[in-house]
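Case study B.
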Amino acid sequence: MEKFKYMEEYGFEQLCFFQDKGTGLKAITCIHNTVLGPSLGGTRFWNYKTEDEAVEDVLRLARGMTYKSALAGLPLGGGKSVIIGDASVLKKDPIRREAFWRAFGRYIEGLSGRYITAEDVGTSTQDMVYVNMETNHVVGLPGRSGDPSPFTALGTYKSMLACAKHVFGEADLKGKTVAVQGVGNVGYYLCELLHKDGANIIISDVSEERIQKCVKEFGVKVVGVNDIYSVDCDIYAPCALGATINDDTIPVLKCKIVCGGANNQLRDAHVHGNALKNRGIVYAPDFLTNAGGVINVSYELAEGGYNKEASLRDIDRIYRRMRDILRISEETGELTFQTADKMAEERIEAVRNIKSILTRR
Ligand code: NAD
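Model:
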């Protein structure tokens, strides 16, 4: 990859590499855009096969955070960190673990608040506690906003209600059948909300333990991991992996709506966004649908500290925003994610233009 060319094309501000030989830390942080505020995004710890793979992932994830926060109306930009290595090895070595995460914290401190980190795949709240020993530019700490997953699920549910209103005429899921792929943190809380509403729930997961919890608590129906795409349902809710909307799955979908908490649901945004549209299936852009978690965590940075009521009010706005996106994309003929992208870009550009007011002579 020609990194500078790519960064210029997609407006990336900064890409930083950091290593600490003593602890074995190898981290990359990408700050995509700070027009709306400091960049915020979690730290992913992953056994990347190559350095290029890690760079590609951090670039893609950081840019996604810019759009997610911009569309959610947050005073935040987009950034992300990745750490190359095996997280499970570190978890077995408590002494190195503390030093490793404190080294990471010192590095984050060196970015002077242009980037704020949080936990993500492969990292835990305890790791962030160590990071916090060296920097205040970290959110999602114990005793503050807590686990983001119930809030992500709530936002997903609001988005689903907006889609139901658009497609079925009523913002009501009673009697509707929802196929939830993956009942981990987000999927489980989503099932809880759907169950309360009287929806029929069909689930799939690779974890028997997680399946049984949902069967016991919500009386869900279970199907195999490969059968979830083709079940008879009104809504398909991907809450596990990315890229599940692809050439193989689109032809077998029987739903009218795709709306779930997973990131990067469309394997190829344009190709598969169009393919869904051609099949008459409404797609709820994932970066709006799953913004509840980042909205909630952002309230740790608010004046006066974390405020749950304000956070819930903000998450509630996902409903209105999704309604607007569905209406506009219908009027313009754009794909729903294109309308969402444009809204985010408009906000960033409007704010970018006022940045020079006080510095201009
Ligand atoms: P999780 O790991 O807790 O849950 C994922 C679940 O999917 C697990 O139960 C896992 O067993 C299951 N799974 C894995 N492979 C599967 C397969 N082939 N078929 C069916 N199930 C499978 O993760 P999570 O925190 O619930 O996140 C789920 C998705 O939502 C991810 O894409 C994540 O990036 C996205 N997301 C999460 C949050 C959040 O607040 N946790 C916020 C934004 C986006």
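The first helix runs from residue 3 to 9. The remaining cases will be described in the next quarterly update.
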